[in-house]
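INFO batch 0412 | record 1 of 1 | parsing
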Amino acid sequence: MAARVVVTGGAGDMGRTLCAQLAASDRVGRVVVADRDGEAAERVAAELSRSSAGRLEAADVDLLDGDATRKLLSDADFVANAAGPFFRLGVPTLEAAIAAGTPYLDICDDPEPTERMLELDERAREAGVAAVIGMGASPGLSNLLARRAADRLDRVIDCYTVWPLDGAGEGAEDALDSARPASGPPPAAVVHLMQQISGRIRVVEAGELVDATPLQSVDLDFPGLGSGTAVTVGHPEPVTLHRSLGVEGRCANAMLVEKSTGAYLDGLRRDMDAGTLDVEQAAAELLAPTATRGAAALARSLAFRGAGRLPPFFALLRGERDGRR
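INFO prediction complete | emitting tokens
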């Protein structure tokens, strides 16, 4: 029997792509485009229905309304959560899925809810609910790359997962350009980024999960491809990989940025930490830079090192095999 799948955040960039792929599968009978913007959900469902034999419908739902979310998910065979920012919406959506008895998958890219959702493992097992979190690109593919590398080592000492932000890295595209909306508030992905370059982030030092300042430089040498510098950013990989791989040294997630972007982000970080900007305001200033902030960033960019010739998306592990580093 073909499944009925609810895609939360279905009207967003990631959600819309997920809805299109699910609707094209002969194993899915119905796709519910669920979003707090009901009109946008209707538009996505109508547009995708033109090429999917009318197998889509729309639902207006606020994921912070637990009763409404449980009701929506109770009629589903599966829920795919693409609603961000996950530091606000990840935990309540998983809790609703467990309460509804509905299998769950998401692309959570925030470490704070990742830790809290891992704590729901026993509750999910008792409810007979399969729940898989963090299965996007980063985290997701990045974890699988790290696992593949770790399988070639007897001991994992250091582990880095790296992705590009603004076109830095050999052959990378500029994700910031595609994130700029024609109108309205900044997308959830950019708000997430501001959350994860401010305050403290989770990294692993000497095999222990600790809090650290974000945007710290990490010099990396990828054998056979090139070397360069990335900057640390909050992400779930250190939270999960230090558990699954037994990392004994350092584990961090980092991004490749142009020098000017790194300096600009550092200015936003300082203001968020000082309380003069919130994450939404900082996201708006990243997508529409002011001349004053841009000039200050240009001066500070001299202190930043660039991505060099590093590839745009990779995992890099250091360790031992057969007693050799």
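INFO post-check: The radius of gyration is 20 Å.
INFO record closed
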